[in-house]
């Protein structure tokens, strides 16, 4: 139970950093950086155009988060089909999936000797990434060049506003290949290692959804284990 709760709360944090975009062909490869080129168009306008892209892709990432001197490393996979989202994360023998389907949120997990269990609860509040997209006019946006990540060429940008700092790279279709967030509370960095397509079948829950249990009870179970 302790491991499941850790994955659950980590997934809640990460789900906010899901970005827009779509991609057609699966690929994997190394990460390389090319020299920055001078752009004649406005970087912020380009970023807004990227955020307006339709979403239909699968992307697998290496994830590293750091806070209060502690770090967490794992891999996660994102599936975007229109406005619906699935995020997978595995730590040791426990697998966690978060689904955002038709304005509802579902949390599913599976552990050894157990089948899948899914819970349904209300949509999350606006997250840092949501705020970045909806409040992009507040940010200073600088184009920083191109990087080849997972076999895809990404256009890269740096966004800053007060104490918030973001770096991101996107394909021409809007798939996020790299995303880094730096704030006083910590850092989060995602780097794509595989990019491909997603379909509606990827958004099917692995088990019927139950009502989400009381958070206070979950915390008590966490403290007891």
Structural account:
The chain is an alpha+beta fold. It has one domain (2-220): outer membrane lipoprotein receptor (LolB), chain A (Clam). It is 18% helix and 46% strand. The protein has helices spanning 2-15, 43-51, 128-134, 215-224, and strands at 32-33, 56-67, 70-81, 84-91, 94-101, 104-110, 117-121, 140-149, 152-161, 164-170, 176-183, 186-196, 209-211. The longest helix has 14 residues, at 2-15.
The count of strands amounts to: 13
Largest sheet: 13 strands, mixed
Query: Could you say how many structural domains there are in total?
Result: 1
User: Strand order, biggest sheet?
Assistant: 1-8-9-10-11-12-2-3-4-5-6-7-13
CATH architecture: Clam
**Helix-strand pattern:** HEHEEEEEEHEEEEEEH
Low-confidence stretches: 1-10, 17-30, 33-38
Secondary structure: helix percent: 10-25%
The proportion of residues in beta strands is: over 45%
What would the CATH topology be?
outer membrane lipoprotein receptor (LolB), chain A
Q: CATH homologous superfamily - what is it? A: Lipoprotein localisation LolA/LolB/LppX
Radius of gyration: 18 Å
Shape: globular
Continuous helix count:
4
**Helix-strand makeup class:** alpha+beta
């Amino acid at each position: 139970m302790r491991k499941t709760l850790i994955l659950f709360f980590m997934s809640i944090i990460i789900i906010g950093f899901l970005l827009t975009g779509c991609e057609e062909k699966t690929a994997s490869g190394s990460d390389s950086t090319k020299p920055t080129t001078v752009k004649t168009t406005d970087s912020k306008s380009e970023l807004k155009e990227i955020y307006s892209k339709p979403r239909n892709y699968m992307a697998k990432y290496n994830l590293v988060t750091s806070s209060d001197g502690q770090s967490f490393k794992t891999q996660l996979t994102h599936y975007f089909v229109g406005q619906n989202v699935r995020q997978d994360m595995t730590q040791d023998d426990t697998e966690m999936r978060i689904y955002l389907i038709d304005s509802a949120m579902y949390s599913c997990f599976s552990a050894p000797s157990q089948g899948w269990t899914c819970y349904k609860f209300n949509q999350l509040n606006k997250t840092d990434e949501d705020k970045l997209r909806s409040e992009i006019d507040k940010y200073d946006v600088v184009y920083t060049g191109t990087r080849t990540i997972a076999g895809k060429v990404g256009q890269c940008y740096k966004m800053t506003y007060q104490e918030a700092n973001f770096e991101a790279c996107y394909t021409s279709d809007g798939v996020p290949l790299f995303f880094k967030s730096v704030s006083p509370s910590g850092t989060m960095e995602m780097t794509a290692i595989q990019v491909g397509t997603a379909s509606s079948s990827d958004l099917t829950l692995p088990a019927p959804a139950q009502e989400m249990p009381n958070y206070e009870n979950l915390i008590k179970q966490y403290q007891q284990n």
